[in-house]
Amino acid sequence: MSITQQYADVAAEVERVCLENGRNPEEVRLVAVSKTVDADRVQDAIDGGAVDFGENRPEQIMEKQARYPRARWHFIGNIQSRRIKDIVPCAHLIHSVFKEDHMRKISAAAESIGKVQDILIEVNVSGELSKGGIEPDQLRDMLRASADLPGVRVCGLMTMAPQGDLELASKCFADLRELKESTDPLCRELGIAPLSELSMGMSEDWRCAIAQGATIVRIGRAIFSDSFAG
Ligand SMILES: *Cc1c(COP(=O)(O)O)cnc(C)c1O
Fold first, then answer.
1. What is the pTM of this model?
2. Residue 228 binned pLDDT confidence (cut-offs 50, 70, 90)
3. Whole-number Å distance between alpha carbons of 20 and 7
4. Residue nearest to atom 7 of ligand 1 (CA)
5. Cα of 45 to ligand 1 centre, how many Å?
6. Contact criterion met (CB below 8 Å) for 97 and 134
7. pLDDT at position 130, please?
């Protein structure tokens, strides 16, 4: 099957799963994670209706954003301080922020180009050592720090669930939603907008992420691989 068709099929299924779970499909964005394919293939997904794309390497987001500036480019990868100035000009949303120092540098880079950078805080809800993200109890300090940074706006939270166990994944997603909701009073106190986005769910577990309240799903293989069965 072509990438164009696979994107269209996944998008239709996302809509169907939203409706099955009593979610408004307009509240759930599908980010096509194009990190494994070259820039030519991005056009195939655009032909299938894709608007949002995710990349995890600075060189890739720079190259692809320059080539497809009308698409929205999401940075979902590991952040290195020295690459922040490269990422900020091309990122619609940075999903993977979990260090206060990076948040400060993102704010400075954004201010220097007259931008307010939308970001998500990555949270390690599963506690797996291999995963990035703050501990849930560090979120309050991150939000407090963000309130003093004019160049960033924290829009919500992101997580990655352990692979291979959908029940455990579901629990992680529910935990992230509860964590988000728990910050409402703090956001009011800090005078910042309540967190609205939950970026959670990948090729294997996006259905249960939508059931648990995801507003953004990040799907790579189910769109771009010709051998993903799921
Ligand atoms: C690669 C990646 C995805 C997409 O994963 P698939 O399993 O290919 O759907 C989503 N989020 C992040 C952070 C990734 O690195």
1. 0.97
2. confident
3. 20
4. 203
5. 16
6. no
7. 83
